[in-house]
Amino acid sequence: MLVDVKNTPVVEVYQMLVGLVTPRPIAWVTTRSNSGVINLAPFSFFNVFGANPPVVVFSPTLKRDGSKKDTLINIEANGEFVINASTEKHAKLINLSSTMLPIEESELALTGQTTIASTSIHTPRLADVPFALECRVLQIVPVGQGPISANLVIGEVLTLHIDNDILDQDGCPDPRKLKAVARLGNEYWCRTQDLFQLERPS
Known about the structure:
Elements: H1 10-20, E1 24-25, E2 27-32, E3 38-43, E4 46-51, E5 54-58, H2 70-78, E6 80-84, H3 91-96, H4 107-111, E7 115-116, E8 125-126, E9 131-143, E10 150-162, H5 175-178, E11 181-183, E12 189-191
Antiparallel strand pairs: 1-11, 2-3, 2-6, 4-5, 5-10, 6-9, 7-8, 9-10, 11-12
């Protein structure tokens, strides 16, 4: 199969990419509107990209009608966000929080989630997650125009909140305890409990 991107509908290219580039970690993001409404939404175009300073990047793509998602609108207005853990315990709620609601409605009510105050920013974090990363926006990079075009939100992590219950005896995050989930293509998700170890070359 050969896909000529220039001559293939955008949605088909998108479906191919998300089916091939897997698994993708999920950023479960809280943002705050100017009127104080807390938005909660998942994004699987996400990863960590550095540690000095600690940097995360995720992309709230434009909607299929070409308009901006609430998360992007809020981040442009306030310059901050929280990455909350995406775990097996919350998988159905993470999926539910992708429901398109009017900007004045919060996904917190839809999912039954509660928040607690962050320490470095005004946007709150979720109360019932094993970690949360408080972030300040460094840069937003629009890439392309129209439906499903990217907006790379580059954020500096200011504070990490980590539940001691997911740490191993050396104080490091233990994937067996974290029980993260990730996105695959179509309607598929995966658990990260199928593990193997390889020592890095010296």
